[in-house]
Amino acid sequence: MGAEVAEPGTVRPGGRTARVRTAVLQAAGDTLAERGFAHLDLADIARRAEVGKTTVYRRWGTVTGLVADLLTDMAEQSLPRTESGSLLGDLKANARLVRRTLADPRQGALFKAVIAAATCEAKTAEALHRFYEIRVKEWAPCVQQAIDRGEVPKETDTHEVIRAVSAPLYYRLLTSRDPLDEAAADRAAEAAATAARAGVYVRSEAGLG
After folding, report:
1. What gap in Å lies between CA 142 and CA 53, rounded to an integer?
2. Which residues are in the HTH tetR-type domain (predicted)?
3. By the 8 A CB rule, do 193 and 87 touch?
4. How far apart are the C-alpha atoms of 73 and 131, rounded to whole Å?
């Protein structure tokens, strides 16, 4: 469920609208990372982005609307999956991508802020769920290819395998001061691959007659 991205908006074509969106999303992401969701203010974001306040209010309307657009932009610009030819290789690539994102001072702080906000803001929670849905769908074909190669059982839930890779890394980010190093990423991938091969992620209804 990798999420490493370019700076918001930089992949998009030119034009004033694109430049405004880039500047505003950059300012929103920086503020989230530095001060958290509670300190997001549209007027302050407009000043920071050097964009007219009216433009920001008209386009995004609310702080939650702005955060939702930021997450949409991040999901769209996240790096695509890599395919190594083996389940473990693919899951390690995914885990290392997630680790790089969460270990990055700006990105890690940004995700902490959004996750915290999602616990009490329904629209932010919806946007966060949409972000992860996009990223899981991007990487799920790696597991399907493993099914096709006969590496894992036929009825394996491809999405659950991908979620299992990143879950330990998010847990470490949110609950521990232990470093998010590459060894932790590789362990998460190895654990998910081993469990998948053992049939842990086979859909429960697959066994019903």
Report:
1. 44
2. 18-78
3. yes
4. 9
**Vertex 143 angle, CA 139 and 146, to 5°:** 140
Q: What are 110's two structure tokens?
A: 């940004």
| The pLDDT of residue 94 | 96
Q: Which pair of structure tokens corresponds to residue 134?
A: 């996009």
Summarised one tens digit per residue, pLDDT across range 146-172 is 999 999 999 999 999 999 999 999 999
Domain boundaries, the chain: 1-209
Q: Is the pTM of this model over 0.85?
A: no
Residues in the chain, overall count? 209
CATH dotted code for 1-209? 1.10.357.10
Label residue 12 exposed, middle or buried (CB < 10 Å: 0-12, 13-18, 19+).
Answer: middle
Tokens of 62: 């609310």
